[in-house]
Specification:
Length: about 80
């Protein structure tokens, strides 16, 4: 990471983008925040792989494959662009 980048602040920004309330973030232990970030990165990567292999797949079908709500997949797709 570049010097001067506050990882905690960056994570807060990413989570707020994904709709995670700031109230939860300020109370969550730092290791849980990083664990969530790792999970989010893995899911986003898997979402990109699915869409690269099947670009015409509906958001609903991607959500079924990832076992996530459609709204979460929509945010992942938006985040990936």
């Amino acid at each position: 990471m570049d010097e001067g980048v506050d990882p905690k602040n960056m994570c807060r920004h990413l989570y707020s983008t994904m709709g995670v309330p700031n109230e939860l973030l300020k109370d969550a232990p730092e290791d849980l925040i990083f664990l969530f970030q790792d999970w989010l990165d893995m899911v986003a990567s898997e979402c990109r792989k699915i869409l690269a292999a099947q670009p015409d797949l509906s958001t609903l079908e991607v959500a079924k494959q990832l076992k996530l709500p459609v709204s979460t997949v929509e945010k992942l797709i938006k985040r990936g662009n």
